Amino acid sequence: MSTTPRDIARELARRYSTMTHEELNVLERIIIPMRFAKGRQILSEGEVCRNIYYLDKGLIRQYYLKNGKEVTEHLGSDHSIFMCIESLFKEEPTTLQVEALEPSFVYALPKADLERIALHNVNIQMMYRKILEESLIISQVHADLVRFESAKNRYQKMQKLYPQVILRAPLTYVANYLQMTPETLSRVRASLLFD
């Protein structure tokens, strides 16, 4: 991995909060680098999610099983955050699973350590809050997308919000995330070529 925990601390500070040199040092010490091969589970059903994850490079899919079928809840690519928020805060086993769709470089921020250092560092506290806010907004945007938008608008909004995911994720997962069949997604994509 060419990226270091220090680089990730700087990136998180840049995106979510300004930090002093000392706060960057404190944050850097809790960041855990992880590497996942394509197809590996990052988190399995029944495990307790204990980390907020920063995906530095790669592609992940968060999904759950419903009536024996996989339902994609989230797709994430380079420089994004993911977590199983309910499991993280209730400290209960998750029903979600997270899989690496490409070789992925991930950095874990253990919740217990993050909360401990946030108590004494106001900028880390601000970063933590903004990460959680962003996660909730992403969930709401997805919920609204599938509730209120036509199939064509869902796809177009996803293209705009997550262009790398559209380019790199298997279309079956994109269709599943948008709550449409692969056939509907193919028709939508074809219709956009002639617009």
UniProtKB/TrEMBL annotation:
It comes from Hoylesella nanceiensis. Residues 15-117 form the Cyclic nucleotide-binding domain. It comes from the Bacteria. This is Crp/Fnr family transcriptional regulator.
